[in-house]
């Protein structure tokens, strides 16, 4: 058996609130195999048996040497609420690392576009990309991880009311500040990803999108998280699984429901 | 030495633990890195139709209290793709291969069964109980006359032993069980999912795109146990029991209710080693109670 991912018990090293409803948790497990690509995610499992399904959480940062994973997540329901209450030295069941990741080959001008809680997985990506990074981050109101992103490129921030950064959205910022780009990497809400796909097509830039869909298992068993991906067949597409075929797909292949 | 084995219609099973169709990837590839697939009693392949099916739109999954609702809709690449690409993978493993077949018409079911005749699969599971396809599926499984008729028709074209998977979404499941037995079924598997629904009260919308889906997981186990018990007292053919099996004790409960084999479904999605944990749990129970053969506790509940 070739074991590349495992369900293990991880220890909580830290769990702190970043802004309202958004938590930064650092977990550690010696049992994990750190063959990690930015864009991959982990499954966290609730201790409450009434909540059967794991919660997929994107990986924000990795410390391979110390076998530590930083997860940034938003409380959206009972499961994530339980995780927000975990404290130092508590334990959590975790499966890692799941899904594919971003292609890191680009050496030119990289555009990184994050929206809300889609922002965290782009931090490890920004760290590992070669070339120059311009990072565009959009938030509804509260902003987070800005200083961390600043270590790895020029950061531009947009919020709905303009209290932080500029008023507007990431596409407004890109229209204003991007002169040249070789590749775009993006993660965030569907509306933003659609706009990024359109921007990339209009400007003939290769783009990668990290998608989100309701998942059952997170490792391809239930076929619950299907998305339409262009394919050269009679229909012109195939239903693919976000959890194993994604979450990262080429933007030009993603068919958003219009 | 405990005896976990049994025979259904000439097919030898080394142990009673199988996978429930649709909860083990398409053919189990995703689980190869977690368990030794040869340790299973059988791999039950995800529903296969004549032509490739897209399945339903997302969201397809909703968690409920102690369960989940799905409306995947039998997404699959079709029987020819299965024979060409998936059989090789399955044949590598020393376990029985059971193929769940689906169709929109009786002729489609028959054609899928026919195309599997020349393969090395061990049994066919006739899916007349999926609540997530508009045509075929559950429509055949909720009417006794239709259930008997489709069983007969498929039986007439297949050279494989036939399992018929029953829907719990009926008034009297024993009536359907009797019908498929009359139709020539060699075995019954039960239960498929219960039709359910979940509403997001904040968005004021159903969670699933399809609105309704199939409820599975421990939440449905008591219903499944009751139905296996009722059907085991009604028919002579063996039953593969499923519905919320999470551990060995759950499996023993099904066996005492009358099941010959058991299938693990939703638990696979939460714990990829669930099948092996169930098998270990069965062995532990047998050891604890000094049971040497599972047949000594099978169907012991009156």
Notes on the structure:
The complex is a heterodimer of chains A (258) and B (302). With 258 residues, chain A is α/β, with parallel strands linked by helices. Chain A has helices at residues 78-84, 121-128, 146-150, 170-177, 190-202, and strands at 6-19, 22-28, 41-45, 55-63, 68-74, 91-98, 109-115, 132-139, 154-159, 166-167, 183-187, 206-210, 226-230, 237-241, 248-250. In chain A, the strands form three sheets. In chain A, strands 10-9-8-7-11-12-15 form a seven-stranded mixed β-sheet, with helices on both faces. Chain A has a six-stranded antiparallel β-barrel with strand order 1-2-5-4-3-6. In chain B, strand 5 and strand 6 (67-70) form a beta hairpin. Chain B is built from nine helices and 16 strands. At the A-B interface, loops of A face strand 5, strand 6 and helix 8 of B.
Topology record:
The complex is a heterodimer of chains A (258) and B (302).
Chain A: E1 6-19, E2 22-28, E3 41-45, E4 55-63, E5 68-74, H1 78-84, E6 91-98, E7 109-115, H2 121-128, E8 132-139, H3 146-150, E9 154-159, E10 166-167, H4 170-177, E11 183-187, H5 190-202, E12 206-210, E13 226-230, E14 237-241, E15 248-250
Parallel strand pairs in A: 7-8, 7-11, 8-9, 9-10, 11-12
Antiparallel strand pairs in A: 1-2, 1-6, 2-5, 3-4, 3-6, 4-5, 12-15, 13-14
Chain B: E1 6-8, E2 11-13, E3 17-19, E4 42-48, E5 61-64, E6 67-70, H1 79-91, E7 96-101, H2 106-115, E8 123-127, H3 138-141, H4 144-157, E9 162-165, H5 173-182, E10 187-190, E11 194-197, E12 199-200, E13 205-206, E14 212-216, H6 221-232, E15 239-242, H7 248-257, E16 261-264, H8 266-270, H9 274-288
């Amino acid at each position: 058996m070739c074991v590349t991912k495992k369900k293990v018990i991880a220890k909580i090293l830290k769990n702190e609130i970043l802004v309202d409803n958004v938590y930064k948790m650092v977990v550690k497990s010696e049992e994990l195999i750190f063959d990690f690509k930015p864009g991959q995610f982990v499954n966290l499992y609730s201790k409450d048996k009434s909540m059967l399904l794991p919660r997929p959480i994107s990986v924000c940062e990795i410390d391979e040497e110390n076998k530590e994973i930083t997860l940034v997540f938003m409380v959206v329901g009972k499961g994530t609420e339980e995780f927000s209450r975990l404290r130092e030295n508590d334990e959590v069941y975790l499966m890692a690392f799941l899904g594919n990741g971003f292609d890191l080959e680009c050496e030119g001008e990289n555009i990184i576009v994050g929206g809300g809680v889609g922002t965290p997985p782009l931090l490890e990506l920004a760290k590992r990309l070669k070339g120059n990074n311009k990072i565009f981050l959009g938030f509804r109101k509260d902003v987070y991880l800005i200083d961390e992103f600043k270590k790895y490129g020029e950061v531009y921030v947009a919020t709905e009311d303009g209290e932080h950064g500029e008023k507007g959205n990431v596409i407004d910022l890109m229209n204003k500040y991007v002169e040249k780009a070789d590749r775009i990497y993006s993660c965030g809400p569907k509306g933003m990803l659609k706009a990024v796909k359109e921007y990339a097509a209009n400007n003939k830039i290769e783009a990668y999108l990290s998608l989100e869909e309701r998942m059952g298992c997170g490792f391809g068993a239930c076929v619950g998280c299907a998305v339409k991906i262009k394919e050269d067949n009679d229909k012109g597409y195939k239903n693919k699984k976000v959890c194993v075929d994604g979450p990262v797909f080429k933007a030009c292949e993603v068919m958003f429901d219009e | 030495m405990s005896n976990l084995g049994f025979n259904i219609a000439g097919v030898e099973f080394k142990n009673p633990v199988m996978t429930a169709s649709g909860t083990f990837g398409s053919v189990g590839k995703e689980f190869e890195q977690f368990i030794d697939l040869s340790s299973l009693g059988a791999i039950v392949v995800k529903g296969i139709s004549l032509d490739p099916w897209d399945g339903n739109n997302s969201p397809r999954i909703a968690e409920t209290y102690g369960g989940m609702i799905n409306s995947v809709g039998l997404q699959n690449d079709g029987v020819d793709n299965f024979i060409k690409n998936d059989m090789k993978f399955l044949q590598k493993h020393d376990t029985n291969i059971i193929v769940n077949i689906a169709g929109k018409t009786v002729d489609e079911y028959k054609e899928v069964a026919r195309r599997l005749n020349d393969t090395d699969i061990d049994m066919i599971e006739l899916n007349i109980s999926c609540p997530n396809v508009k045509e075929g599926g559950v429509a055949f499984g909720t009417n006794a006359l239709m259930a008997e008729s489709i069983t007969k028709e498929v039986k007439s074209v297949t050279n494989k032993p036939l399992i018929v998977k029953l829907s719990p979404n009926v008034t009297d499941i024993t009536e359907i069980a009797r019908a498929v037995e009359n139709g020539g079924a060699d075995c019954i598997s039960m239960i498929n999912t219960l039709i359910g629904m979940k509403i997001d009260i904040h968005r004021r919308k159903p969670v699933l795109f399809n609105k309704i889906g199939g409820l599975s997981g421990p939440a449905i186990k008591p219903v499944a146990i009751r139905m296996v018990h009722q059907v085991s007292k009604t028919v002579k053919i063996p039953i593969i029991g499923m519905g919320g099996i999470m551990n060995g004790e759950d499996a023993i409960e099904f066996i005492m209710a009358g099941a010959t084999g058991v299938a693990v479904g939703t638990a696979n999605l939460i714990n990829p080693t669930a099948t092996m944990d169930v098998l270990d749990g069965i062995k532990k129970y047998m050891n604890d109670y000094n049971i040497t053969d599972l047949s000594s506790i099978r169907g012991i509940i009156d």
